[in-house]
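Hey, I'm writing a tutorial for new members on how sequence and structure tokens pair up, and I'd like a real worked example in the thread rather than a made-up one. If someone can provide the structure for the chain below, I'll link this post from the tutorial.
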Amino acid sequence: MSTWIALILVLSVALFCLCVYQLADDWMRNKFDAFNPKNFFLAYLALQLAIYPFYVIVSGGSFRIFDNGSEADLKWIVAALILSCVGVFSFQFGYFFGGRINFFNQSFANRGIDAERVAAVLFFGLPVSLVSIYYAYFRLGGLGGYFESFVEVRYGGSTGGAFIGFFATSFVAYLGVLSFICSVRSPSRRTWLRVSAALHVLALVTTLMTGFRILLGPMLLIIVSSYHYYIRSLRRVEVMLFLLSLTTLMTAYGVIRSRVEAHLSLSGINENDQVSIIDSFFTRSPGIELVAQTMKKIDEGEDFAYFVAGAWEALTIIVPRNWWTEKPTPQSLLFGERFMSYELFLRDGTVTTNTGGHSPTAIGFCYWQGGWWFVILGMFILGIAFSGSYRLFVMNRHNQPFALVYIIIASGMFKFAEAPQDTVNGILLTVPILIVFISFCSSKNPMRIAASGSHRRAYPLSN
């Protein structure tokens, strides 16, 4: 075993321990809240940055981008692991520091959700979602036309895709959650439950059709966490069973999607390649390689981004591209063009189209913006954001509208671990719409809160 291989194994274990330390500490001190988004974020980081390289080495596999037998390539993996350890430590420190900021100690008025107003939102909002579903999936000659352009849309995006996709998938799920909450004390409980179930099934189907399994997690987390906080507190065993089922579903879906892409001959995947469920889970996100690739390309002369283009993209995300034909290229596509050109050429024979599908992780994204110091600062700020928002939620669960907005946003915050730019875009697209609709549905009558459970005792920080 070479020295570099040994370093990769040691650093992978160290990084894994950094990621799970706070989770384990919360668990041992009986302060663990399974649905704290910090837990999913750190677990997803660990999978991409620590478990992936460890599994590749131990299983005798090969890295996707770098060569296991090249000392020069292994040095970049080691550098990426060291950078990741620094970034995760900075996040943990930011999370600790965020709980000591008085701004996050505010307590809002006690408010609930008005069922009649939710019915009005359903009356006007559901048609918007149905039109969006038609435009997203049926306008290209029905389902057949959609699947013919499946990979092109998945990797290259589509005009107005963010705006239309939100109303075709996520917004349907949000309507389902509002309906579900209305069933808590409504005389028409069964009716609300049926409406909620129908909306969630519709949202699940439309989300599956996008090809992005990372969208499945937030949708299911919204449902289960709402139940956990406002109907009945789930036991730890129940939470573990849910997470195991969710992981299995997302992994199996990824394997099936790869088979579909190969069958349609729209990607470089060989239909006859047999990828096991275990391999698909551990190698789903080669995040550490993308971090290493980012560091390598910048060392070779690629420019830093300094958050300018990313901030402008986030602020203008709500403007459809067909309204603004000269709208700048999204960061996700630029990353593919600038950092993954050789791999794109091997996959597609070109680097001019379908450059999406590569996410640099939170560590790689921050490094792209300005190097090591930007990783330290960016992950520190992210830790404060996770800690402060969760603390506000813990102190304001009695304010149902605020709590629902938080639960919906928090359910997707783990995606910061893989694609920070896309996650910020989604939040800025979602929050204004959520505030308008949920504020309209608010009532001065408080809603019932779930019976006491571990999350009622939990303090948002590990001290």
